[in-house]
Amino acid sequence: MTETMMTLDEVEAAAFRALRATGASAAQAAPVAHSIRAAEAEGTRGIGLGYLPYYCGHLTVGKIVGDASPVASSPAPALIRVDAASGFAHPAYIAGEEMLIAAAQSQGIALMGIANAYACGVLGYFTDRLARRGLVAIMTANASSTMAPFGGHAPFFGTNPWSFAAPRAQEPLVIDSSSSATAFVNIANAAAAGQAIPPTWALDADGQPTTDPAQALAGSIAPAGGHKGAALALMVEVLAAGLTGANWSYQASSLGDDNGGPPNLGQTLIAIRADGLNAGNPLVPRLDSMLSAMTDQPGTRVPGDRRHANRRRAEANGVAVDAALLETLRSLKAIS
Predict the structure, then answer these.
(1) What is the pLDDT of residues 213-270, one digit of tens each?
(2) Helix count (H) and strand count (E) of the chain?
(3) Percent of the chain residues past pLDDT 90, beyond the cut
(4) What are the backbone angles phi and psi of residue 177, rounded to the nearest 5°?
(5) How many C-beta neighbours within 10 Å does residue 324 have?
(6) Distances in Å between the alpha carbon of 197 and those of 156, 177, 187, 212?
(7) Residues facing residue 138 across a β-bridge
(8) 53-90 pLDDT per residue, tens
């Protein structure tokens, strides 16, 4: 299939145009377009240009309020609250980012909760930003229900992702995972392509493992690691929605269709000063030394290093876009 190379600047500009064309204000569109650029650069197309049609479609039907104005406040010295006003999570994060960093630096640890937001995409995008500012970062986010609780068969939790990042001498350690066996978009993409899925990914409507993505979409995503993933999803739910006052996953409108209005989900970030407990024995050189010892074992790698390598290649060479995605971008008025 013929491919066209796009620079990362072109990716970001195309995403911005598409979001603006479907109802997002410049203030809402710009941070989302930048996150799409990052996802493409790091090799996560499913939440990059591949997710742009979802963003645009949900702007069009009102699941995302395109002219939302997030409001950030500080109810306590180490707590930041941002009301996303039913808009994107990314501009809500930006509204509170400097407040969170300042609070973490002055208090040693700080927490930012975002309420009433759309799904935030790749959580590592946010924790990476904080790690590059010298902070250890943890993030959780809930999502509309697609995953059954352990022992159940009907969707109740979202994929409920989490991320952890820590600063290093060069580029951060970044761990980014979901509580579920896979992301919803992976099953949706397999269904659209008519491809089978691994038997560990999902359950049919009767709670039985399935390799048919259509049956999976009618059933639920499986938790990662059985009861462990389900327990992790519950913890994420409490942190992301319980603390912030956002909708629980089972209350949120679906991210997979056009019905129901804004999902009003939640995201929580915890930022910790890397030298807060042990200024005389800094974390960064100790972490680099430990990771070097770990990777002395053949076949091992540091989480986040692949995404950093992908980004460096994309910065130099751009990203390949096939004819089908180019046509999608044209239909969204992202490119001419």
Answers:
(1) 999 999 999 999 999 999 999 999 999 999 999 999 999 999 989 999 999 999 999 9
(2) 11, 12
(3) 92
(4) -150, 170
(5) 9
(6) 21, 19, 7, 6
(7) 164, 270
(8) 999 999 999 999 999 999 999 999 999 999 999 999 99
**Unique residue bearing structure tokens 């796009």:** 6
**Given a cut of 80, is residue 319 above it in pLDDT?**
yes
Residue with tokens 């609070």: 103
92, amino acid identity:
A
Give dist(CA 6, CA 293) in Å, integer: 38
Which domains are assigned to the chain? 1-61+305-336 (1.10.1530.10), 68-180+223-303 (3.30.1370.60)
Q: What's phi and psi for 96, nearest 5 deg?
A: -110, -5
pLDDT digits (tens, 9 = 90+) for 145-193: 999 999 888 999 999 999 999 999 999 999 999 999 998 878 988 998 9
pLDDT interval class at 1 (50, 70, 90): low
CB 219 within 8 A of CB 204: yes
Nearest Cα to Cα of residue 269 among 119, 153, 124: 124
* pTM as predicted: 0.95
**Burial (Cβ within 10 Å: 0-12, 13-18, ≥19) of residue 76:** exposed
Coil, helix or strand at residue 109: strand
Phi, psi angle pair for 205, to nearest 5°: -65, -20
User: Could you tell me where the DSSP H helices lie in 65-207?
Assistant: 89-107, 124-131, 184-193
Q: In whole angstroms, what is the distance from residue 191 CA to residue 215 CA?
A: 9
How big, in percent rounded to 5, are the helix, strand and coil portions of the chain? 40, 20, 40
Closest among 239, 2, 284, 37 to 138, alpha carbons compared: 239
| C-alpha to C-alpha distances, 210 to 203, 229, 237, 256, 293, nearest whole angstrom | 6, 18, 26, 20, 40
Written as six digits, the tokens of 84 are 């996303």
- Using alpha carbons only, how large is the chain's radius of gyration in Å? 20
Q: What is the DSSP string of 232-249?
A: HHHHHHIIIIITTTPPPG
